[in-house]
TrEMBL record:
Monomer and homodimer. GTP binds at residues 18, 72, 103, 164, 267-269. This is GTP 3',8-cyclase. The keyword Lyase applies. NCBIfam families: moaA (TIGR02666), PRK00164.2-1 (NF001199). It is an enzyme of class 4 (lyase). It comes from the Bacteria. [4Fe-4S] cluster 1 binds at residues 25, 29, 32. InterPro entries: Aldolase_TIM, Elp3/MiaA/NifB-like_rSAM, MoaA, MoaA-like, MoaA_NifB_PqqE_Fe-S-bd_CS, MoaA_twitch, MoCo_biosynth_MoaA/MoaC, rSAM. The keyword Cytoplasm does not apply.
């Protein structure tokens, strides 16, 4: 397969692709899909607007030809997409693909883990924002306790999937859970990554004062456990990695707010309705679904993506201010795919 390397205005290549397979979710996390907005009357995408598996596969092939090597399926909750294992099977067989992962709240992961692994999935990132039931239930607003998520994590590990846990930390919401979560996953031998709360979308009431920085979390954890730095595994790795001294277990920090990493951002996203985004904080995307459905050839689709990437100058997090965080139009995380 011929691989072309395309670069944007700042010389960043296109290396990874996140594909959102649904904008729906079985949780209503307060900071992502608050129930007052994502309630019974919310207009989720109609089925015919979702990319079909054929369309996702076709676009993935085009992106692989452009140098993408890693893809991650997300949403909404990707395990809600019907026959997701069939999609994974189709994608994991594509030439040139090195890694396929999925981000999930893990409610459905336990019973699907084996099928997902057999379909070719390599790794899962499980989102869990607290180890304490009350805090977790207040966040997910869906009466789900932590145990089913933990059972899924253990099941996924036993199945042979790579497993990492992600925790978004918001001041006053779950910052008291940083050390208990670190302790729990250190003992379980699973990598935990703390994510700084971000101003994605328009509905989560974000403010700088809600952000718990990496430094604050690092200081708190190091009072309990000795940490040593781990080198990044590849260019553009977003997590700052550490190891608990004397173990093989890692802990990481995704410092999107306090130490932004736009200069090495090689990631593109496709929303569930086929809009292509070059930044998580974009206001508008390029409608690839219509281009596909209007009969474009692979070459034409490729040219469209290449011209969009060449003009990419996104560096939202490097330039974030109170003003952009509050007033800029941004799409929702559940739509673009986290
Ligand atoms: N439903 C799946 C899940 O929760 O893992 C996949 C989609 S979710 C949008 C992907 C990730 O984005 C989750 O780990 C979630 O916690 C994170 N996320 C959502 N809103 C966020 C925000 N405002 N700041 C930081 N991370 C956020
Ligand atoms: Fe759903 Fe994930 Fe958003 Fe929570 S963070 S509401 S699980 S999409
Ligand atoms: Fe990439 Fe945009 Fe995030 Fe910067 S703000 S790291 S360009 S997604």
């Amino acid at each position: 397969m011929q691989q072309s390397v395309i670069t944007d205005k700042f010389g960043r290549t296109l290396q990874d692709l996140r594909i959102s397979v649904t904008d729906r979710c079985n949780f209503r996390c307060r900071y992502c899909m608050p129930r007052e907005i994502f309630g019974k009357d919310f207009a989720f995408l109609p089925k015919e607007h979702l990319l079909s598996f054929e369309e996702i596969e076709r676009l993935t092939k085009v992106f692989l030809n452009l140098g993408v090597r890693k893809i991650r399926l997300t949403g909404g909750e990707p395990l809600l997409r019907r026959d997701i294992t069939t999609l994974i099977k189709r994608l994991s067989n594509l030439e040139g693909l090195q890694d396929i992962g999925l981000t999930t709240n893990a409610v459905l992961l336990g019973k699907m883990a084996e099928d997902l692994k057999n379909a070719g999935l390599k790794r899962v990132n499980v989102s869990l924002d607290a180890i304490d039931d009350d805090t977790f239930m207040k966040i997910n607003d869906s009466r789900v306790r932590t145990q089913p998520v933990i059972d899924s994590i253990i099941k996924a590990k036993e199945t042979g999937l790579g497993v990492k846990v992600n925790m978004v930390v918001k001041k006053g919401m779950n910052d008291h859970q940083v050390v208990p979560m670190a302790k729990y996953f250190k003992e379980l031998g699973v990598t935990l990554r703390f994510i700084e709360f971000m101003d994605v979308g328009q509905t989560n009431g974000w403010d700088f004062k809600h952000v718990v920085t990496k430094k604050e979390m690092y200081d708190e954890i190091s009072e309990q456990f000795e940490l040593e730095p781990v080198d990044p595994a590849y260019f553009g790795e977003v997590a700052k990695r550490y190891r608990y001294k004397g173990t093989n277990t890692e802990v990481g920090f995704i410092t999107s707010v306090s130490e932004s990493f736009c200069s090495s951002c090689t990631r593109a996203r496709i929303a569930a309705d086929g809009h292509f985004f070059t930044c998580l904080f974009a206001g508008e995307g390029l409608n690839l679904k219509d281009i596909l459905r209007n009969g474009a050839t692979d070459e034409e689709v490729t040219d469209t993506i290449v011209s969009r990437w060449k003009y990419r100058d996104d560096r939202y997090s490097d330039e974030r201010t109170e003003e952009t965080a509050k007033n800029r139009k941004k799409i929702e995380m559940s739509y673009i795919g986290g």
